[in-house]
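Researcher: Structure for this, please.
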Amino acid sequence: MWTNCFKIFLVLGLVAGGPAFSQNDPLPNEKIVFNSDINGGHDIWMINPDGTGLEILIDRPGTQTFPRISPDGTKVAYYHRPVPGGPRDIVIRDLATGTDTVLVTPFTNSPSTFEWFGDSAAIIARNIGGSCTGDPISFIPIDGSCAISLFAESGRRLTVMAVDPLTDVLYYSSDPCNSPNTEVKAYDITTGHKTLIQSFDGRLEGRGETFLNTFVFQKASSGYSNTRIARMNTDGSGELILSTGSGLKDVNPRLSVDGTRAVFVRQEPSYDTDLYLVDLETLLEIPLFLGPYSAGAPDWGVLRFGAAPACSTP
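Model: Predicted structure, C-alpha cell format:
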C-alpha cells in the first residue's frame, strides 16, 4: 500500500470533508515532469504547476521519455533509448543519489506501457510485442528479484492504464487486434479478480490515473483521431469529457496531487505538442508549456531529493 506521508494526510483530509491542500497551495517540490527536446535531444524536465521554475531533471546521452514519479517521490522511472530506433529500457533514477538503474524485465522485446505499484517497490508493465500476440502484463520488482507474469488475454492487446495506489487495483484496456472496440477492466492484484468497467466502440486507453474513486483517461471515437481527455468513476459511471479542442489530439492525462486538476498533452494540427491543465469541475483549460519545443508524457507529484519519509500506512 501507499506509504507516502503527504498522500495519506491528503486522503484523510478529503474523507473528513475537504481537500487538505487547495490548488493555490502547492506542496514543497510539487512538480510536473515531462519529456521535451528543449536541449535538442529528448530529456526529462520539471516545471511548477503554475508554469514557473522550468528546470532539467534528467539529462544524459540517448533519448529519455515517459517519466513516472514513484509513489514515495524518491525515484523517477522513465524510458531510455541509447540509440535512435534501437530498443529501450525502463530506467529508475534515484533522486537522492542521482544514480540510474536499468530495470531487469522478463520481456524479449522493449517494455511497453508501465506504472508504479504500491509502495514504490515494483513496476507493472507489458511487453511491447505485437498487437495481437497476447503479451502478458507483469509485476516487476525494482530490486532485481524475479518478475511475475500476472495475466494475458489471447488475441488481445493490453495497455496498462493506471494502478490505484490505495487499493492496488490495476486498470487496463483490452482490444482485439487494434479494432475500435475496447474494454476497460480492473484487476485486483491481491485476489486476481477481474471486473469489466466499460465497453466502448472506439479507442479508450491508457496514460491515465486514479484518485480515490475518480479515473482520468484518453478516449477516441475511432483510431486515434479526435482524442479527448475524460473522467469517470472507477465503477464505470459518471463519464465526462474534460478537454474541448476540436480536431486536436489530447492524450496522456495525469492528475494533480489533490485530484482537482489534470495535466495533459495536446497535439496541434502542426504536430506541435503542448502541455495544458484542466480543472475537473469547471473544465477551464490553462496552457502550461507551449512550443516551439515538444512536450510529452507528463506526470504530477512531489519530488523528494532526500531520504524517503520515515512513516508508513497505519
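Researcher: Any notable elements?
Model: The two ends are 10 Å apart (CA to CA). The CA atoms of residues 197 and 235 lie 6 Å apart.
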